[in-house]
Design a protein that fits this description.
Elements (H helix, E strand, L loop, with lengths): L3 H16 L4 H11 L4 H22 L1 H9 L21 H7 L14 E4 L9 E4 L1 H16 L9 E5 L2 H4 L5 H11 L1 E5 L5 H14 L3 E4 L1 H14 L8 E4 L6 H11 L3 E7 L3 E6 L6 E3 L4 E6 L12 E7 L10 E9 L12 E8 L4 E2 L5 E2 L1 H11 L3 E10 L2 E8 L5 H15 L4 E6 L14 E3 L10
Helix pairs in contact: 2-6, 3-4, 9-10, 10-11
The protein binds zinc ion (ZN).
């Protein structure tokens, strides 16, 4: 029995928060109640926050003053979420080119938190976050993490890129905090091999952490290792997959191995948590306390529920550097159902990956890279893993990790699938590799399109 868990939750966490002068637990406790507000109440609160952030952005940043004036909009005219559609979209290039002019004059930049993205889409960006917003986001993330079944104070196991750095394990304060509060053991997925998987498995068997957290594919690879090598009795109460699209085949394997449902969580460095599944796993509840989400068609109009489109987010709490109508570069759709859990927070159906991961066929069709790789993986005999790269509109490279079942029938199947999905006359080549390489952040991408797309040009 883990006697430290309730002590950590009830005593250490509040004391540490007091010492840090952090209000995240207060926000968390408040959000435990407000998550059951009606959708109408939630919308009213969002509109109050929206009005406040637009007015603040206009008054205290050069960038937003000019943007709104150029668009012919005064903050007094923005009263409802629907009014957002009158504002221009904010791109990663805007953040990169004008980031400094987006920082509010109401803050001293030296006191702000700086968030940097890894730039895996080719455009690294940085965002300043004020402390109040940071604590609010921390409370919201804690609430969502607990939907997995894990509770604050319980042990965690993390598979991530450079987790020791994130936990500040190089400082005495970081180590103490981890021992008493974070209670995290980790595996660096940038440095994972059979030996590190084996050592990690032995450690998890002994500690039996209540939460397993990581990139979808890293969790999957670890589950596959356990399938063939054991042990079979690592039993977390919750598993959170974050920072990457979770494929159905990955979810299935992870759930089979750990006998525990996977909670899919979606967010980004620029605005933190965007949406997360609850214990019903019926779509991802949007973190509407601090975020407004729109789903747009290529022409910029709002998509209907169930219709995939570009995900656009507005950060309703970060006053240090207002992020309004930000085009993250991912595709997803709003759900047209409610969740039986009773939470009023609206739902996203699923996240379909980056716009850059969509294939555009020679006849102009858009095909989700996620569903495509799922389809190819399951249909071709002998394919353990596959990465699809669209080099040109009519030329593909398939990187394949194969096993002994791969043979002429597999080649024939690939040919058939290419004709069926991309059209006759499309060229392709197969490259056989031992493993699909990771990106610098530790994430994997299974479908990469290097072809320009109309979605990427909407402004
Ligand atoms: Zn729910």
């Amino acid at each position: 029995m883990d006697l430290l868990a309730p002590f950590s939750r009830k005593i250490i966490a509040p004391l540490w928060a007091t010492w840090e002068r952090s209000l995240y637990l207060r926000h968390y406790n408040c959000m435990l109640r407000t998550q059951f507000d009606s959708p109408k109440q939630i919308k009213v609160k969002q509109e109050t926050l929206l009005k406040s952030i637009i007015t603040h952005a206009y008054r205290t940043t050069q960038f937003w003053k000019e943007r709104l004036e150029t668009a012919g909009i005064h903050p007094d005219e923005v009263n409802q979420l629907a009014d957002l559609s009158r504002l221009p979209l904010l791109t990663k290039n805007d953040l990169r080119a004008h980031g400094e002019r987006m920082v509010s004059s109401a803050y001293n930049k030296a006191e702000l938190h700086l968030k940097r993205t890894s730039g895996s889409t080719g455009v690294p960006v940085q965002v300043y976050v004020d402390d109040d917003a940071g604590q609010f986001k921390r409370g919201a993330t804690l609430r969502a993490d607990e939907w997995s079944g894990w509770r604050l104070g319980d042990r965690k196991a993390i598979i991530w890129g450079n987790p020791a750095g994130e936990l500040r394990m190089h400082t005495w304060r970081g180590r103490l905090r981890n021992r008493l509060l974070e209670r995290t053991v980790f595996l660096d997925c940038l440095d994972a091999d059979e030996t590190s998987f084996e050592n990690f498995a032995i450690l998890l068997r002994k500690l039996q952490p209540k939460l397993l957290f990581g990139h979808a594919h890293s969790l999957y690879l670890f589950a596959r290792y356990l399938q063939s090598h054991g042990p079979e009795d690592i039993r977390p109460r919750g598993i959170i997959s974050a920072a990457m699209v979770l494929h159905d085949w990955e979810r299935q394997t992870i759930e089979d191995v750990f006998q525990c449902p996977v909670t899919n969580r979606y967010g980004c460095e620029e605005v933190s948590l965007i949406a997360c599944e609850c214990e019903r796993h019926n779509g991802l509840h949007i973190n509407s306390d601090g975020i407004a989400v729109e789903i747009l068609r290529p022409d910029g109009t709002a998509a209907n529920p169930g219709e995939p489109g570009m995900i656009i987010v507005t950060d309703l709490v970060n006053h240090a550097m207002p992020i309004i109508r930000y085009k993250i570069g991912d595709m997803g759709s709003l759900a047209d159902h409610t969740c039986p859990c009773g939470r009023g927070l609206p739902l996203l159906n699923d996240i379909q990956g980056r716009v850059a991961d969509y294939i555009v066929t020679p006849d102009g069709k858009y095909v989700s890279g996620i569903s495509l790789t799922d389809h190819f993986n399951t249909k071709i005999p002998g394919v353990v893993q596959m990465q699809i790269i669209q080099e040109e509109i009519d030329r593909f490279v398939f990187r394949i990790v194969k096993d002994t079942e791969f043979g002429p029938a597999s080649q024939k199947k690939i040919h058939g699938l290419v004709s069926e999905h991309f059209g006759e006359g499309v060229r392709y080549e197969c490259e056989f590799v031992n493993r699909i390489p990771q990106e610098a952040s530790g994430k994997y991408r299974f479908c990469i399109s290097k072809v320009d797309k109309v979605f990427e040009h909407v402004q």
